[in-house]
Write a structure and sequence with these properties.
Largest sheet: 8 strands, parallel
Radius of gyration: 20 Å
Structural class: alpha/beta
CATH architecture of one domain: Alpha-Beta Barrel
Low-confidence stretches: none
Strand order of the largest sheet: 11-10-9-8-7-6-3-14
Number of strands: 14
Mean pLDDT: 91
CATH topology of one domain: TIM Barrel
Order of helices and strands: EEEEEHEHEHEHEHEHEEEHHHHEHH
Strand content: 5-15%
Length: 338
Protein backbone atom coordinates (compact mmCIF):
# COMPACT_ATOMS: atom_id res chain seq x y z
CA UNK A 1 0.00 0.00 0.00
CA UNK A 2 1.09 3.57 -0.68
CA UNK A 3 0.31 6.36 1.74
CA UNK A 4 -0.14 10.10 1.39
CA UNK A 5 -0.66 13.12 3.60
CA UNK A 6 -4.33 14.05 3.74
CA UNK A 7 -4.30 17.49 2.15
CA UNK A 8 -2.95 20.23 4.42
CA UNK A 9 -3.23 18.10 7.58
CA UNK A 10 -0.59 16.17 9.46
CA UNK A 11 -2.36 12.83 9.06
CA UNK A 12 -1.21 10.05 6.73
CA UNK A 13 -3.74 7.84 4.97
CA UNK A 14 -3.69 4.98 2.49
CA UNK A 15 -4.07 5.94 -1.16
CA UNK A 16 -7.47 4.25 -1.08
CA UNK A 17 -10.25 4.82 1.44
CA UNK A 18 -12.78 2.07 2.11
CA UNK A 19 -16.42 3.16 2.06
CA UNK A 20 -18.95 1.29 4.17
CA UNK A 21 -22.25 2.63 2.82
CA UNK A 22 -23.35 -0.89 1.89
CA UNK A 23 -22.99 -2.21 5.45
CA UNK A 24 -26.48 -3.11 6.60
CA UNK A 25 -28.10 -1.47 3.57
CA UNK A 26 -31.32 -3.18 2.50
CA UNK A 27 -32.40 -3.40 -1.15
CA UNK A 28 -35.74 -5.09 -1.85
CA UNK A 29 -35.61 -6.71 1.59
CA UNK A 30 -32.09 -8.08 1.13
CA UNK A 31 -29.11 -6.77 3.10
CA UNK A 32 -26.36 -5.91 0.61
CA UNK A 33 -23.53 -6.50 3.11
CA UNK A 34 -24.35 -8.28 6.37
CA UNK A 35 -22.33 -8.13 9.59
CA UNK A 36 -20.15 -11.17 8.80
CA UNK A 37 -19.41 -9.90 5.28
CA UNK A 38 -18.66 -6.43 6.65
CA UNK A 39 -16.08 -7.84 9.05
CA UNK A 40 -14.51 -9.92 6.27
CA UNK A 41 -14.14 -6.77 4.16
CA UNK A 42 -12.63 -4.85 7.06
CA UNK A 43 -10.21 -7.75 7.61
CA UNK A 44 -9.23 -7.50 3.93
CA UNK A 45 -8.67 -3.76 4.30
CA UNK A 46 -6.38 -4.39 7.24
CA UNK A 47 -4.44 -7.05 5.35
CA UNK A 48 -3.95 -4.74 2.36
CA UNK A 49 -2.81 -1.82 4.50
CA UNK A 50 -5.91 0.36 4.03
CA UNK A 51 -6.05 2.49 7.17
CA UNK A 52 -8.74 4.99 6.06
CA UNK A 53 -12.37 3.94 6.71
CA UNK A 54 -15.40 6.05 5.73
CA UNK A 55 -18.86 5.70 7.24
CA UNK A 56 -21.88 7.81 8.30
CA UNK A 57 -24.50 7.73 11.01
CA UNK A 58 -27.22 6.94 8.46
CA UNK A 59 -25.37 4.08 6.75
CA UNK A 60 -27.23 0.89 7.61
CA UNK A 61 -30.03 2.86 9.27
CA UNK A 62 -31.94 2.08 11.44
CA UNK A 63 -29.67 2.20 14.47
CA UNK A 64 -26.48 3.08 12.58
CA UNK A 65 -25.47 -0.47 11.65
CA UNK A 66 -22.42 0.58 9.65
CA UNK A 67 -20.84 2.51 12.52
CA UNK A 68 -21.87 -0.17 15.00
CA UNK A 69 -20.36 -3.00 12.96
CA UNK A 70 -17.09 -1.10 12.53
CA UNK A 71 -16.94 -0.58 16.29
CA UNK A 72 -17.65 -4.25 16.92
CA UNK A 73 -14.94 -5.23 14.44
CA UNK A 74 -12.39 -3.03 16.22
CA UNK A 75 -13.29 -4.60 19.55
CA UNK A 76 -13.47 -8.19 18.26
CA UNK A 77 -10.16 -8.06 16.40
CA UNK A 78 -8.29 -6.13 19.08
CA UNK A 79 -6.85 -3.63 16.60
CA UNK A 80 -5.38 -0.46 18.02
CA UNK A 81 -7.58 2.56 17.38
CA UNK A 82 -4.54 4.68 16.49
CA UNK A 83 -3.82 2.44 13.50
CA UNK A 84 -6.99 3.61 11.73
CA UNK A 85 -8.25 6.91 10.36
CA UNK A 86 -12.03 6.92 10.87
CA UNK A 87 -14.40 9.31 9.10
CA UNK A 88 -18.14 9.74 9.65
CA UNK A 89 -20.83 12.26 8.73
CA UNK A 90 -23.77 14.29 10.02
CA UNK A 91 -26.80 15.96 8.41
CA UNK A 92 -29.56 13.56 7.39
CA UNK A 93 -32.55 12.72 9.64
CA UNK A 94 -31.42 10.24 12.29
CA UNK A 95 -31.81 9.62 15.99
CA UNK A 96 -31.00 5.91 16.35
CA UNK A 97 -34.25 5.32 18.25
CA UNK A 98 -37.01 5.40 15.66
CA UNK A 99 -38.84 8.07 13.71
CA UNK A 100 -36.69 11.25 13.67
CA UNK A 101 -38.09 14.32 15.42
CA UNK A 102 -37.95 17.99 14.31
CA UNK A 103 -34.40 18.50 15.63
CA UNK A 104 -33.01 15.18 14.41
CA UNK A 105 -31.59 16.48 11.14
CA UNK A 106 -29.55 19.33 9.68
CA UNK A 107 -26.44 21.11 10.90
CA UNK A 108 -27.72 23.07 13.88
CA UNK A 109 -25.84 22.88 17.17
CA UNK A 110 -28.43 20.61 18.83
CA UNK A 111 -28.36 17.97 16.10
CA UNK A 112 -24.57 17.97 15.63
CA UNK A 113 -24.02 17.65 19.39
CA UNK A 114 -26.42 14.73 19.63
CA UNK A 115 -25.02 12.94 16.58
CA UNK A 116 -21.34 13.10 17.49
CA UNK A 117 -22.10 11.39 20.80
CA UNK A 118 -24.07 8.63 19.07
CA UNK A 119 -21.41 8.13 16.43
CA UNK A 120 -18.60 7.86 18.99
CA UNK A 121 -20.63 5.40 21.08
CA UNK A 122 -21.40 3.16 18.09
CA UNK A 123 -17.79 3.20 16.89
CA UNK A 124 -16.52 2.57 20.41
CA UNK A 125 -14.04 5.43 20.28
CA UNK A 126 -13.37 8.72 22.05
CA UNK A 127 -12.76 10.66 18.85
CA UNK A 128 -13.19 10.81 15.08
CA UNK A 129 -10.28 11.58 12.80
CA UNK A 130 -12.56 13.25 10.27
CA UNK A 131 -16.13 14.54 10.58
CA UNK A 132 -17.98 15.50 7.39
CA UNK A 133 -21.11 17.55 6.95
CA UNK A 134 -23.06 15.19 4.70
CA UNK A 135 -24.85 17.99 2.87
CA UNK A 136 -25.23 21.78 3.04
CA UNK A 137 -27.96 22.98 5.41
CA UNK A 138 -29.99 25.80 3.88
CA UNK A 139 -31.78 26.44 7.19
CA UNK A 140 -28.79 26.85 9.50
CA UNK A 141 -26.26 29.70 9.24
CA UNK A 142 -22.88 28.30 8.25
CA UNK A 143 -21.36 30.30 11.12
CA UNK A 144 -23.34 28.24 13.66
CA UNK A 145 -22.31 25.01 11.98
CA UNK A 146 -18.62 25.92 11.87
CA UNK A 147 -18.68 27.20 15.46
CA UNK A 148 -20.17 23.92 16.66
CA UNK A 149 -17.73 21.82 14.66
CA UNK A 150 -14.85 23.95 15.96
CA UNK A 151 -15.98 23.22 19.52
CA UNK A 152 -15.78 19.48 18.76
CA UNK A 153 -12.22 19.87 17.48
CA UNK A 154 -11.14 21.89 20.53
CA UNK A 155 -12.72 19.33 22.84
CA UNK A 156 -10.74 16.54 21.14
CA UNK A 157 -13.81 14.72 19.85
CA UNK A 158 -12.88 15.42 16.21
CA UNK A 159 -9.49 15.98 14.60
CA UNK A 160 -10.39 17.37 11.17
CA UNK A 161 -13.48 18.63 9.38
CA UNK A 162 -14.81 17.62 5.97
CA UNK A 163 -17.57 18.63 3.57
CA UNK A 164 -19.46 16.28 1.28
CA UNK A 165 -21.47 17.31 -1.77
CA UNK A 166 -22.09 21.04 -2.26
CA UNK A 167 -21.65 23.81 -4.81
CA UNK A 168 -18.26 25.48 -5.19
CA UNK A 169 -19.57 28.80 -3.89
CA UNK A 170 -20.89 27.14 -0.73
CA UNK A 171 -17.53 25.55 -0.04
CA UNK A 172 -15.89 28.93 -0.60
CA UNK A 173 -18.38 30.61 1.76
CA UNK A 174 -17.67 28.04 4.48
CA UNK A 175 -13.89 28.45 4.14
CA UNK A 176 -14.22 32.24 4.17
CA UNK A 177 -16.42 32.14 7.27
CA UNK A 178 -13.89 29.99 9.10
CA UNK A 179 -11.02 32.30 8.17
CA UNK A 180 -12.84 35.50 9.12
CA UNK A 181 -14.24 34.09 12.39
CA UNK A 182 -11.06 32.29 13.43
CA UNK A 183 -12.76 28.89 13.27
CA UNK A 184 -11.60 25.46 12.16
CA UNK A 185 -11.99 25.01 8.40
CA UNK A 186 -12.76 22.12 6.09
CA UNK A 187 -9.61 20.13 5.26
CA UNK A 188 -11.27 17.44 3.15
CA UNK A 189 -14.11 17.29 0.62
CA UNK A 190 -16.13 14.34 -0.69
CA UNK A 191 -17.69 15.10 -4.08
CA UNK A 192 -18.74 12.63 -6.74
CA UNK A 193 -15.79 12.71 -9.11
CA UNK A 194 -14.70 10.06 -11.60
CA UNK A 195 -13.39 9.77 -15.13
CA UNK A 196 -16.85 9.19 -16.62
CA UNK A 197 -18.74 11.83 -14.65
CA UNK A 198 -20.30 14.39 -16.98
CA UNK A 199 -21.12 16.95 -14.28
CA UNK A 200 -18.82 19.96 -14.38
CA UNK A 201 -16.86 19.90 -11.13
CA UNK A 202 -13.97 22.04 -12.35
CA UNK A 203 -14.96 25.08 -10.24
CA UNK A 204 -15.26 22.92 -7.15
CA UNK A 205 -11.88 21.32 -7.75
CA UNK A 206 -10.32 24.73 -8.41
CA UNK A 207 -11.35 25.76 -4.90
CA UNK A 208 -9.88 22.56 -3.44
CA UNK A 209 -6.59 23.06 -5.30
CA UNK A 210 -6.31 26.73 -4.32
CA UNK A 211 -7.14 26.11 -0.65
CA UNK A 212 -5.10 22.91 -0.17
CA UNK A 213 -8.24 20.90 0.52
CA UNK A 214 -8.01 17.15 -0.03
CA UNK A 215 -10.53 15.41 -2.31
CA UNK A 216 -11.92 11.97 -1.38
CA UNK A 217 -14.31 11.24 -4.25
CA UNK A 218 -17.19 8.83 -3.83
CA UNK A 219 -18.41 6.68 -6.73
CA UNK A 220 -14.91 6.65 -8.28
CA UNK A 221 -15.97 3.86 -10.66
CA UNK A 222 -19.22 5.56 -11.71
CA UNK A 223 -21.44 3.03 -9.98
CA UNK A 224 -19.47 0.16 -11.53
CA UNK A 225 -19.72 1.52 -15.07
CA UNK A 226 -15.94 2.01 -15.26
CA UNK A 227 -15.25 -1.63 -14.38
CA UNK A 228 -16.14 -2.51 -17.97
CA UNK A 229 -18.77 -5.06 -17.00
CA UNK A 230 -21.52 -3.29 -18.94
CA UNK A 231 -22.05 -3.58 -22.67
CA UNK A 232 -23.76 -1.15 -25.00
CA UNK A 233 -26.78 -2.47 -26.88
CA UNK A 234 -27.49 -1.47 -30.49
CA UNK A 235 -30.20 0.92 -29.33
CA UNK A 236 -27.72 2.64 -27.02
CA UNK A 237 -29.11 1.16 -23.79
CA UNK A 238 -27.02 -0.60 -21.17
CA UNK A 239 -26.79 -4.39 -21.15
CA UNK A 240 -26.32 -5.11 -17.44
CA UNK A 241 -25.41 -8.40 -15.75
CA UNK A 242 -28.05 -9.79 -13.40
CA UNK A 243 -27.67 -8.45 -9.88
CA UNK A 244 -25.53 -5.48 -10.93
CA UNK A 245 -26.52 -1.92 -10.12
CA UNK A 246 -27.33 -1.37 -13.77
CA UNK A 247 -29.92 -4.14 -13.65
CA UNK A 248 -31.50 -2.85 -10.44
CA UNK A 249 -31.44 0.91 -11.01
CA UNK A 250 -33.76 2.20 -13.74
CA UNK A 251 -31.86 5.50 -13.83
CA UNK A 252 -28.42 3.90 -14.21
CA UNK A 253 -28.21 4.38 -17.97
CA UNK A 254 -29.29 8.02 -17.87
CA UNK A 255 -27.03 8.84 -14.95
CA UNK A 256 -23.82 6.98 -15.76
CA UNK A 257 -23.90 5.57 -19.29
CA UNK A 258 -23.90 8.79 -21.32
CA UNK A 259 -22.34 9.20 -24.77
CA UNK A 260 -19.35 10.84 -23.16
CA UNK A 261 -19.05 8.08 -20.57
CA UNK A 262 -18.90 5.38 -23.27
CA UNK A 263 -16.07 7.31 -24.95
CA UNK A 264 -14.23 7.50 -21.63
CA UNK A 265 -14.73 3.80 -20.98
CA UNK A 266 -13.35 2.94 -24.42
CA UNK A 267 -10.23 4.96 -23.67
CA UNK A 268 -9.88 3.49 -20.19
CA UNK A 269 -10.14 -0.04 -21.61
CA UNK A 270 -7.49 0.82 -24.22
CA UNK A 271 -5.11 2.08 -21.54
CA UNK A 272 -5.87 -0.96 -19.37
CA UNK A 273 -4.72 -3.21 -22.22
CA UNK A 274 -1.49 -1.24 -22.52
CA UNK A 275 -0.58 -1.50 -18.83
CA UNK A 276 -1.95 -5.03 -18.24
CA UNK A 277 -4.55 -3.88 -15.75
CA UNK A 278 -8.31 -3.83 -15.41
CA UNK A 279 -10.45 -0.80 -16.34
CA UNK A 280 -11.31 -0.34 -12.66
CA UNK A 281 -7.64 -0.16 -11.73
CA UNK A 282 -6.89 2.38 -14.44
CA UNK A 283 -9.88 4.51 -13.43
CA UNK A 284 -8.77 4.54 -9.79
CA UNK A 285 -5.18 5.33 -10.73
CA UNK A 286 -6.35 8.25 -12.86
CA UNK A 287 -7.88 9.70 -9.70
CA UNK A 288 -4.86 8.97 -7.51
CA UNK A 289 -2.57 10.77 -9.95
CA UNK A 290 -4.39 14.09 -9.78
CA UNK A 291 -1.53 16.30 -8.67
CA UNK A 292 -3.19 19.64 -7.95
CA UNK A 293 -4.72 18.26 -4.75
CA UNK A 294 -4.57 15.12 -2.65
CA UNK A 295 -7.04 12.68 -4.20
CA UNK A 296 -7.96 9.53 -2.26
CA UNK A 297 -10.79 7.56 -3.92
CA UNK A 298 -13.38 5.90 -1.69
CA UNK A 299 -13.94 2.35 -2.91
CA UNK A 300 -17.01 0.34 -1.93
CA UNK A 301 -16.08 -3.21 -2.87
CA UNK A 302 -18.70 -5.89 -2.28
CA UNK A 303 -16.21 -8.75 -1.80
CA UNK A 304 -12.59 -9.21 -0.69
CA UNK A 305 -11.73 -10.18 -4.29
CA UNK A 306 -13.11 -6.90 -5.60
CA UNK A 307 -11.16 -5.04 -2.92
CA UNK A 308 -7.98 -6.84 -3.95
CA UNK A 309 -8.56 -5.73 -7.54
CA UNK A 310 -9.06 -2.14 -6.37
CA UNK A 311 -5.83 -2.27 -4.36
CA UNK A 312 -4.01 -3.34 -7.53
CA UNK A 313 -4.43 0.25 -8.76
CA UNK A 314 -1.78 1.33 -6.26
CA UNK A 315 0.93 -0.49 -8.22
CA UNK A 316 0.05 1.14 -11.55
CA UNK A 317 1.67 4.17 -13.10
CA UNK A 318 0.08 5.97 -16.03
CA UNK A 319 2.20 7.83 -18.53
CA UNK A 320 1.42 11.48 -19.22
CA UNK A 321 0.02 10.44 -22.59
CA UNK A 322 -2.28 7.80 -21.08
CA UNK A 323 -3.50 10.18 -18.38
CA UNK A 324 -4.19 12.93 -20.91
CA UNK A 325 -6.04 10.59 -23.28
CA UNK A 326 -8.51 9.79 -20.50
CA UNK A 327 -8.76 13.49 -19.68
CA UNK A 328 -9.47 14.36 -23.31
CA UNK A 329 -12.12 11.66 -23.64
CA UNK A 330 -13.77 13.01 -20.52
CA UNK A 331 -13.94 16.49 -21.97
CA UNK A 332 -12.45 17.41 -25.33
CA UNK A 333 -12.06 21.02 -24.16
CA UNK A 334 -10.63 20.21 -20.73
CA UNK A 335 -7.16 21.32 -19.72
CA UNK A 336 -7.09 18.48 -17.19
CA UNK A 337 -6.60 18.44 -13.45
CA UNK A 338 -3.23 16.72 -13.23
Amino acid sequence: MEYTTLGDTGTTVSKLCFGTWRFGKESDGTVETDREEAHELLDACWEHGINFIDTANVYGDPNGKSERWIGEWLEDRGHHREDLVLASKVYFPFNGRGEPGPNDSGLGRKHIRAQIEGTLERLGTDYLDLYYIHRWDENTPIRETMQTLTELVREGKVHYLGASSMAAWKLTKALWTSDVEGLERFDVTQPMFNAADTDDVSDYLEVCADQDVAVCPYSPLAGGFLTGKYDRAEDGSVEAPDGSRGSLDEMFGDYYATEQAWDVLETVESVAGEVDATPAQVSLRWLMEQDRFTCVPIVGARTPDQLEENVGAVDLELSDDQFERIDEARDADADGYR
